Amino acid sequence: YFTFQWSFLAVGQDERTDPYRSKLWKEAYGNVLELGPGFSSSLKHLHHKTTKDSSYNVDPDVIHSYTALEPNPFMYGGLQENAEKNGFRVEYDHVSYPECTISGTEDPHKELVPFKIVRGTLDDSDNIPQAILDGAPYDTVLTSFALCTAANPEESIRNIMRLLKPGGSYIFVEHIRHPTPGDPLVVEDNGVDGQFWGKMQDWVNPIWNIFGHGCHITRKTGENIANMDGWKSVDHKMVRVNDALIAYFLPMSFGKAIKA
């Protein structure tokens, strides 16, 4: 059942998202935290370099460590596979996931960038996994379609800010409700009637939420990030996509916020 849900939501998602994520993810650096990565196909967009053995691995001069905070163990096999393909050394946090029976990277090369998989969310400030707190502060926090499924998205944003170091970057691509027609932050309209499809989102959202594993398509995530106190700057834009029927329900907000 979950496989069906994930497959439904993922139809064409990478193709629609990669033009924006490929540029933004290049700006990730240092000690990185990704919230709700799923299989994290976006790892390919981080800074890479060719190593001595001709492998094309994540660049250790840019990415020093990577922590993936994912609540659903269903994702861990694919997440580990993608991490290893990108030259990370994978380990699991057995405190947040004590029932873990998955081994990390079989050949733990010391020179590879560490990649820790932690089970949990940032929905509740009192229940942030200790491994996440121990790894803070982070230079970069990333989210791709994580806040649309968060039980408490405002609390998650506050905790993202809390975990960032001053001057650190929060980089995001998130599903949103269609913005008002004529909104200057919409950089690509693609002929989509935002007023009509916004109403369609309102109507479909309760059903979508059930079949989409808790995904909400009516949140104003970019605006909520921008309106939160504590940022030095927020640069975000919105796009409407019309390449497939499902895309009409999934406009996106993407951008970067810098902590004051």
Automatic annotation (TrEMBL):
This is S-adenosyl-L-methionine-dependent methyltransferase. InterPro entries: SAM-dependent_MTases_sf, Thiol_S-MT. PANTHER family: METHYLTRANSFERASE LIKE 7A, METHYLTRANSFERASE LIKE 7B. Pfam families: Methyltransf_23. Gene3D superfamilies: Vaccinia Virus protein VP39. It comes from the Eukaryota.
